[in-house]
């Protein structure tokens, strides 16, 4: 993502601004609705609007956003699309931890029908593993809520990264 000033972001053509929003959270309805509020008075206003819009979307919208993520521990896809900081310190984990993380990711997907979503920024692989283990016994409804909450955190981080400091 290219860092913008708020003024530059507000002046982007709607299609380009939507592309930047989709890079933060790949959900078309979310990006469309957030964009309706442009121009934004501040980054904080944009982040607040983004969070409010996200809270009122439905499961299909959440699943669209989840599907755009690499699985935690999927290092090949991570390297192709995302920065290593986005998945915490997973790339630094030992082979046995990564294997267990991949095994739990498969089980999670088979159980819930979507990938495990967690805001992993700066977290070690062992913490990710403990989190997935603690959530795998939840109901699907609870996991949709958990994943949506984690997606909201990820989106907030990415929105902040859109702007030059």
TrEMBL record:
<dbReference type="GO" id="GO:0051997">
    <property type="term" value="F:2-oxo-4-hydroxy-4-carboxy-5-ureidoimidazoline decarboxylase activity"/>
</dbReference>
<keyword id="KW-0210">Decarboxylase</keyword>
<protein>
    <recommendedName>
        <fullName>2-oxo-4-hydroxy-4-carboxy-5-ureidoimidazoline decarboxylase</fullName>
        <ecNumber>4.1.1.97</ecNumber>
    </recommendedName>
</protein>
<keyword id="KW-0456">Lyase</keyword>
<dbReference type="InterPro" id="IPR017595">
    <property type="entry name" value="OHCU_decarboxylase-2"/>
</dbReference>
<feature type="domain" description="Oxo-4-hydroxy-4-carboxy-5-ureidoimidazoline decarboxylase">
    <location>
        <begin position="11"/>
        <end position="159"/>
    </location>
</feature>
<dbReference type="InterPro" id="IPR018020">
    <property type="entry name" value="OHCU_decarboxylase"/>
</dbReference>
<comment type="pathway">
    <text>Purine metabolism; urate degradation; (S)-allantoin from urate: step 3/3.</text>
</comment>
<dbReference type="Pfam" id="PF09349">
    <property type="entry name" value="OHCU_decarbox"/>
</dbReference>
<keyword id="KW-0659">Purine metabolism</keyword>
<dbReference type="InterPro" id="IPR036778">
    <property type="entry name" value="OHCU_decarboxylase_sf"/>
</dbReference>
